[in-house]
Amino acid sequence: MNQTTHLPDRSARTLLTGPAPRPLVDGVLLLLRLALAVIFFAHGWDTLTNLGVAGTIDLQRESGIPLPELAGPFTVFAELIGGLLLALGALTRPAAAALTVVMLGAIAFIHAPYGIFVEDGGIELTLVLAAASLQLTVQGSGRFGIDGLLARPRTPA
């Protein structure tokens, strides 16, 4: 008796274009969240302790950012609180959306006139941070975060 075992399709086409295994996606989302959390929290902490909210408002006013009295505190606390939330994988989508807005504002009002390269003050870093934040806005925390724990189906006791 010849028994055929069904094996997953591992053709080159599937490996190049098929969906990644869910555990891999969740692991990569965790690494992305943690990397962004470190960067945003550190930047928010640095801004808060060196410029303060008032200094951030002044800097944003000088940069031509609309409504600096709202944008300044939003920026500082989006980075600080958003960084913490990303680390925990809690409220990931709204935190990442807020950080995406902050980075797009930084690109438009601060970095764009200086071109691409970060050493010239350009958009290089902020563009990557905006894109990574947008990715988390779309995909969420993945399984390895508070959001992922809350999304799991509960089994009856």
TrEMBL record:
- What's any one GO cellular component for it? plasma membrane
Q: InterPro entries, per this entry?
A: DoxX, DoxX-like_oxidoreductase
Ranges that cross the membrane: 23-42, 70-88, 95-117
How does it sit in the bilayer? Answer: Multi-pass membrane protein
Primary place of residence? membrane
Q: Where in the cell is it found?
A: Cell membrane
* Pfam families noted in UniProt: DoxX
Alphabetical UniProt keywords: Cell membrane, Membrane, Transmembrane, Transmembrane helix
What protein family does this chain belong to?
A: Belongs to the DoxX family.
The name of this protein is DoxX
Q: Which organism is it from?
A: Nocardia otitidiscaviarum
Q: What is the lineage of its organism?
A: Bacteria, Bacillati, Actinomycetota, Actinomycetes, Mycobacteriales
